[in-house]
Amino acid sequence: MPQPSILVRPRIYIGADISIGPGKIDLLRRIDETRSIAAAARAMGIPYKRAWLLLDALNQAFGRPLIQTASGGKGGGGATLTPLGLQLVICYAALEERLNADSTAELEALRGLATSP
Hints:
The chain has 117 residues and is mainly α. It has one domain (12-115): Winged helix-like DNA-binding domain superfamily/Winged helix DNA-binding domain (Arc Repressor Mutant, subunit A), CATH 1.10.10. The protein is built from five helices and four strands, in the order E-E-H-H-H-E-E-H-H. It has a two-stranded antiparallel sheet with strand order 1-2. Strands 3-4 form a two-stranded antiparallel sheet.
């Protein structure tokens, strides 16, 4: 599905400790797709350490893990979203979809401002 040229990508603050935005959500989505923190970081063009720090911040904020990792070895390692991580991605996607659908007039007005002389 092609991305529209104007899109709302919200940043949500829950209390003083939880901040969820497009970067963290995109990282979780990529981990879900690739089953790897390293592959997700590469796909996003960010260092592995940055990805790990974002995930650690989410885990600390929610008080429980959003991803589950397995060490390498004969079967290989990997990472998967926990039910909490998956639910976070689903809720964020629903919010993002609703905000974009309900903001059509405002988004078109903004687009007009960007393209007017």
